[in-house]
Specification:
two-stranded antiparallel ribbon, elongated, 7 helices, alpha+beta, 43% helix
Length: 153
Amino acid sequence: MRGMSAEEALFEVDNFLSRAIMAGLPAVTVIHGKGTGVLRNAVQQHLRKNKRVKSVRSGVYGEGEQGVTIVLITHYMEEAAQAQRVVVIDGGEVIMDNVPKKIFSNVETMKNLGLDVPQVTELCWELKRAGYAISTEIIHEDECVQKLYEMLK
């Protein structure tokens, strides 16, 4: 990123972050150089606005100090729920391959694989386990609200 304009750098940061998320990385280091700090500030401000970013900080001694930004990534399954298809792979083997609502309705399987499900799906799963007649194929909040409203009328 050294020598890039802020606009070019932010485009590259977004692409890098998307690849890191797809790879399941918990954290990445963005190397922007020390310079005047303009690029560092632009990158850090941009990353702080991104809902996929848990935290942003400058490097410390041994990491690159002010020449790098350390980014902790969050992996919300709500983002995967918006996909047309989800493939779950474990140890190189395809475990599940289907539309999101079918994949995430397998809450126990997902948890056993160390994966999460959308919060709303987990809520429905817990309600179902408690004896309520609600589908675990609910992956969107508005759908859950509607089903809960229908149950309570």
